[in-house]
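Record type: monomer structure entry
Structure origin: computed from sequence
Chain ID: A
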Amino acid sequence: MHPRKQRKFRANAPLHIHTSFVGVHLSKDLKQKIGKRAMPAREGDTVKVIRGQHKGKTGKIRSVNRKFERIIIEGVEQPKRDGSKVPVPVHPSNLVLIDLVPDKKRQKRSEKK
């Protein structure tokens, strides 16, 4: 598939497919426990930033923007000139899931494996 068509697919994909685009890799412990490599990000999950300016910071996911494939994390902020702080959207490929929010659907999926 050509890169142009791949980009067009991602840009024009419906929101239910965008959920798979915000998949985040699991930590080594969760990988062994669940038996999967990655899971879609959800509000309340704890993540660690592994790339970029905020590398090493951990926090809970405040919101997931599926349309723009970005995740807002508590504690990952950038100061403005007036002193206030603004949350920095982070791409899911730069994150690792450390802890999951207990959820019935997720438990059923992990039990199937």
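Annotation 1: Helices lie at 3-12, 15-21, 28-34, 104-112.
Annotation 2: The longest helix spans residues 3-12.
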